[in-house]
Amino acid sequence: MVVVPVYNSPDDVRACIESLLAHTPTATPIVVIDDASPDNTAVDSVREVGARGEHRVVLYLREVNVGFVHSCNEAFKIAAGRDVVLVNSDVVVGPEWLERMIGAARSSNTVATVSTLTNHGTILSLPVRNAPGPMPEGLTVADAARRIAAAATQTRPVIPTAVGHCMYISRTALDVLGGFDPIFSPGYGEEVDFSQRAAAHGLLNVLADDVFVFHRGSASFGTSPQKQLMQDAHEKLINERHPLYAPLMQHASTVTRTSFANALSRARRALTGISVVVDGFCLGPQMMGTQRFVLETACALAEDPSVQRVDLVTPLKVPAYVRAAVQGRPRLHVCPQVPYKTYDQHYEVALRPYQVDHPVQLRWMRQVADVTVVTQLDMIAYHNAAYYGINDVWRQYRDITATAFEVVDGVAFISTHSREEAVREGLLSPQHHSAVTYCGIDHCSATVEPHPPPGKALRPGFLLVLGASYLHKNRMFAVELWGALRNQGFSGQLALVGPEPPWGSSHEAESKWLNEHPELAIDVVTLPSVTESEKAWLLSNTALVTYPTLSEGFGMVPFEAAVAGVPVLTTRQGSLDEVLPPELSTLTSLLPAEAVPLAERLLTDVGFRTEQIALLAAAADTFTWQRSAATLVDLLHRTLAAPNGRQGDLALRLGARPEGNVHVYVDAVVAARRTFPTLHRVLVGQGTRRQAQLRRAVDAFRRRLD
Description:
Spore Coat Polysaccharide Biosynthesis Protein SpsA, Chain A, 7-stranded parallel sheet, 8-stranded mixed sheet, alpha/beta, Rossmann fold
């Protein structure tokens, strides 16, 4: 039986009854109890609307106002032997609302109450969590109801309390508990008390995660000071009777790793699409490879139709190249923030499109979003202690990388090679959500005015090396190759462009070679880093780009060179063999002298040079940021559907990765208990002193974690 308590508010009552008649099976009686409304307009609306259809609409008129609680208790008596659905008069229901609530109620014979999702319903509110709001723009109640029903998995999660805007109450619960406690008359808090009493008796309060109704809110008691006094008094009574209720609600309103939180997230996505926050705190004054990847990923995500909003959080001083790139993208918002401080906004996904190097980054991501996704660009630093100088620092980086794989819900890689390296290290397992999201070459900020870099002048026709002087970039090969070419008559300069890292650099070897060849050193130009406009000038004036790298996560330089119309002499190391066209002529030896013939052909044979550039340029067309974003969005959807990052919570709260996996020790304890039950009872049996000591130790450990 559906029961609608009514007091004034004729417009709300009319909309409510019309929706009930439109979407409720005709065999279900609808009982309207008017609590002595001073204005008969609402009652007249019920009579008029109820006379239109085939439904049985029963109208009870009270002569004296007794309040919501007493009206409901009277309805429970009228419905003897039946379950009851209480619908507030300011609620509008959608298609199949009752059938789906009945399905939730019958999902277990221990269900006491069933509640629905709504726009105004404390912990059940959508699309803003824990806060009332209007319907999403452009959606009717019926549209919203259909979207949420289609997206739901019908897990019917347990919640701390029923929320009274639309509440199904089983006859079992009514028979065991009676009705609402009259002490909560005229209303407010009665459903909380009922739900807590039901839970104490072993019954369940569940959410029908496939039902959405509209709730205007505050129609029953308004917003008067008297209402606030009553609310405060009833809240005090609730806390006295049910001291665990407040912490239960606090947990339910903030948790992101339960079936309830997942149900909210699915429903929210069904209404509005995905909201993503992108960690862009690396976006400093200069754009280098990582900065390019982060910015282009954010821009491409904001163009995907299933992404509702992308917030790119940056340092307080936003670089000009960031502001220029985001212009004309209404769903992409730049949000300057103090890095990794408390952030009020909440999102479906927190995305860090580059490696994690500190636990605070993971904690922040977990705080601001339902799920977390990280892009592991490559495993070079994870493998190479030489780039850290201090063993402890390298170990810490490896530990936080391992912790990230345990904690995050999804991992993206920029090549299959990078993903296979993570598998080789035991970091990526089959249960991880992962995807290969290749880099794009069609950069949104690629259109810049070429400008020569400052310092020593470069003459057009030089040999160009792009990349930091890390040892794996193998710049010494390029230096020696250039020397060999000069001996063969090549007259161009050598430009070594890229910053020098503090450790693991080839700078010392390069300097030694140049000191040994002073006649050539005068034609070597070293630039620590360049702007995008300066890089554009370099690419438009070089004769040949050399890329002799030994290890690469993707390798953007060869494609960027080809797009600029420049040939590249490159290896196939790391991921390059995966992404370069198989027909492309590449280095077959890492001895500089043996590479001279191919380099000379690229420099002098116009037909061969043109063919090689065309091969790379055609391959570059397949690597677009939009395609990368589409693969990434698929990963986000899979991650949101089944978050995997549960086991890392303990590691995060401790602040570092434990030396061993905690769950291994837990499994050992469980196995011992099963193997030696008698010993377990002797040591920690019910009521023993050892059990009391163990409880105190556990409580102390939890306090340290919190």
